[in-house]
């Protein structure tokens, strides 16, 4: 059911952990649904220089967290806001239909982290 | 490291016993007649089917004409519930079932509710035992059927079916038990259990897939689920799966003759596993009862702060095959209905894994599985945002 890329990202996920004093944090999902994703970003001059995640969820949730954080590193915040879940799925070589929501969570977590960064910056 | 190949999902299915295969092969190659044919090819086939029926009847202490072969446990469950409901619909419409039945029962019950049957669910306690005192208040004069599995497929609880049947009979209701996980593992004497109908399956006891049986006590009416020819005394149409039926009976015969030694061996593996896991992995919960009231093969744990499927794939990467909840529900994202019925919080129900051992597992495999599980759980918890928030003070 899972592609080799998903299993590889699950077995050896990148960017697990936290950033000290992150510039943006996005936490989405809830435990009763079986998925919580938290993405933390380091943003310098509107460029994402580092991204980390912590995820409670299935293998697909962990794999999409890893891939999405890899993808946004080096992007400007505007570019990262345009990252769609479909791109994350494509990068993972596809996801089973019932796991697409994991990629949606990853997209939402990144958007939320950037919103957090923007609201902090506006203050 | 060499990739391991360890199977710990015997409640899902089992490998075919070589002795069973040897018995089946002639019925696919030489004795290939349709058991319904009148010529000698057919007569040879039907002789094998009759012997298989006798074997199974003897094991469960029934008469051969009380055994109906089916395509498996799911069909037997569907048929028992729907067949009784339809046969007696003009007199009684109240059906009581446990909330931790297999989906084959729960889905059929839901469908019967749409037809106007009144479905009531038993209460179960935190270990999965049905509440007999409450059941006494549920049965009524218009109760048609009381149904509960003999042993639960997910948490391994062995239910008080004899007592349940007595309560059912006190109101002249029929008693049904799904013995798919129990037959060949526990004693399944229908007279001792006092049940009127019982479903069985072959592939959980080292027999072939795609074959099972329903016991229906003589004198009970049951409507057809499958209409067709004259097979199974016109009660179940479809060409008899001759080799399958032969294999099922042989598997059941072997399981019964080796039942006590297998029970002892597999329960020993289970107890070693449970003890070691509880010692080495913190923040876990064993679901279901302990000791003799638990299926010998079953160890079902919930792990706090992490999700079950990710544990399943952690074990998979290390060459260990297990199940997250019930394999039948793996296509769904809903947490296990069994664990929720036992009162588990949703997040804990999401984080559950079922190990089910078999006669070919070794102590070395058990110890390896404990190590892999311990490391896998640690890795996933280190990734979990819940663990940091809720666990940092508790977990060192």
Chart the SSEs and their pairings.
The complex is a heterodimer of chains A (123) and B (396).
Chain A: H1 4-11, E1 24-30, E2 35-44, E3 47-56, H2 59-72, H3 77-81, H4 85-91, H5 100-122
Antiparallel strand pairs in A: 1-2, 2-3
Helix pairs in contact in A: 1-2, 2-5, 4-5
Chain B: E1 6-7, H1 18-24, H2 26-29, H3 40-59, E2 67-70, H4 73-87, E3 94-97, H5 103-114, E4 118-121, H6 132-138, E5 143-147, H7 161-170, E6 174-178, H8 190-193, E7 197-201, E8 212-216, H9 242-257, H10 259-280, E9 284-287, E10 298-303, H11 308-317, E11 320-321, H12 337-341, H13 346-350, E12 352-356, H14 363-383, H15 385-391
Parallel strand pairs in B: 1-11, 3-4, 3-5, 5-6, 6-7
Antiparallel strand pairs in B: 2-8, 7-8, 9-10, 10-12
CATH class of the largest domain in chain B: Alpha Beta
- Count of folded domains of chain A: 1
- Describe the largest sheet of chain A: 3 strands, antiparallel
Outline the low-pLDDT stretches of chain A.
none
Given as residue ranges, the uncertain stretches of chain B (5+ residues, pLDDT < 50) are none
The total beta strand count of chain B reads 12
End-to-end gap of chain A: 46 Å
Q: Which chains have the largest interface?
A: A-B, 27 and 22 residues
Primary descriptors:
heterodimer; A: 123 residues; alpha+beta; 3-stranded antiparallel beta sheet; B: alpha/beta; Aspartate Aminotransferase, domain 1; Aspartate Aminotransferase, domain 2; 2 domains; 7-stranded mixed beta sheet; 12 strands; 13% strand
Write a structural description.
The complex is a heterodimer of chains A (123) and B (396). Chain A has helices spanning 4-11, 59-72, 77-81, 85-91, 100-122, and strands spanning 24-30, 35-44, 47-56. Chain A is α+β, with helices and mostly antiparallel strands. Chain A has a 3-stranded antiparallel beta sheet with strand order 1-2-3. In chain A, a hairpin with a 2-residue loop joins strand 2 (35-44) and strand 3. By secondary structure, chain B is of the alpha/beta class. Chain B has 2 domains: 6-14 and 259-383, Aspartate Aminotransferase, domain 1 (Alpha-Beta Complex), CATH 3.90.1150.10; 18-257, 3-Layer(aba) Sandwich (Aspartate Aminotransferase, domain 2). Chain B has 15 helices and 12 strands. Chain A binds chain B through residues 2, 7, 10-11, 13, 16, 18, 27, 31-38, 53-59, 61-62, 98, 101, and chain B through 305-307, 309-310, 313, 317, 331-333, 335, 345-347, 350, 382-388.
């Amino acid at each position: 059911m899972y592609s080799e890329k998903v299993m590889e990202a699950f077995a050896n996920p990148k960017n697990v952990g936290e950033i000290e004093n992150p510039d943006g944090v996005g936490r989405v999902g809830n435990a009763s649904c079986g998925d919580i994703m938290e993405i933390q970003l380091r943003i310098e001059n509107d460029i994402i220089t580092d991204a980390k995640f912590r995820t409670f969820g299935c293998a697909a949730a962990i794999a999409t967290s890893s891939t999405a954080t890899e993808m946004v590193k080096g992007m400007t915040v505007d570019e990262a806001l345009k990252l769609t879940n479909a791109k994350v799925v494509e990068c993972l070589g596809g996801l089973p239909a019932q796991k697409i929501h994991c990629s949606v969570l990853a997209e939402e977590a990144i958007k939320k982290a950037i919103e957090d960064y923007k609201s902090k910056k506006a203050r | 490291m060499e990739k391991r190949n360890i199977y710990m999902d015997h409640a899902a299915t089992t490998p075919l016993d070589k002795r069973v295969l040897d018995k089946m092969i002639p019925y696919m190659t030489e004795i290939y007649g349709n058991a319904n044919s009148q010529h000698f090819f057919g007569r040879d086939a039907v002789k094998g089917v009759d012997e298989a029926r006798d074997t199974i009847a003897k094991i469960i202490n029934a008469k051969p004409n009380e055994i109906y072969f089916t395509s498996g446990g799911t069909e037997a469950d569907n048929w028992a519930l729907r067949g009784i409901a339809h046969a007696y619909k003009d007199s009684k419409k109240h059906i009581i079932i446990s909330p931790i039945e297999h989906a084959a029962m729960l889905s059929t019950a839901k469908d019967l509710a749409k037809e106007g049957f009144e479905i009531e669910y038993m209460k179960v306690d935190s270990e999965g035992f049905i509440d007999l005192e409450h059941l006494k208040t549920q049965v009524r004069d218009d109760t048609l059927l009381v149904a509960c599995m003999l042993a639960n497929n997910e948490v391994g609880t062995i239910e008080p079916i004899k007592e349940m049947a007595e309560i059912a009979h006190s109101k002249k209701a029929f008693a049904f038990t799904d013995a798919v996980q129990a037959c060949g593992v526990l004693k399944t004497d229908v007279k001792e259990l006092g049940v009127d109908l019982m479903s069985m399956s072959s592939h959980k006891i080292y027999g072939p897939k795609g074959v099972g049986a329903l016991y229906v006590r003589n004198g009970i009416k049951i409507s057809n689920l499958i209409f067709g020819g004259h097979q199974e005394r016109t009660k179940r149409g479809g060409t008899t799966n001759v080799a399958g039926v032969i294999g099922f009976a042989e598997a059941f015969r072997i399981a019964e003759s080796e039942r006590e030694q297998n029970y002892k061996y597999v329960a020993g593996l289970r107890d070693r596993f449970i003890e070691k896991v509880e010692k080495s992995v913190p923040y876990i919960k064993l679901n279901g009862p302990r000791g003799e009231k638990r299926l010998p093969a079953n160890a079902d744990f919930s792990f706090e702060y992490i999700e079950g499927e990710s544990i399943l794939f952690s074990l998979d990467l290390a060459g260990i095959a297990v199940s997250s909840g019930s394999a039948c529900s793996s296509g769904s994202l809903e947490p296990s209905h069994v664990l929720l019925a036992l009162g588990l919080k949703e997040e804990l129900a999401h984080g559950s894994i079922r190990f089910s051992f078999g006669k070919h597992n070794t102590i070395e495999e058990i110890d390896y599985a404990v190590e892999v599980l311990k490391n896998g759980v640690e890795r996933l918890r280190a990734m979990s945002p819940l663990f940091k928030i809720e666990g940092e003070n508790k977990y060192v």
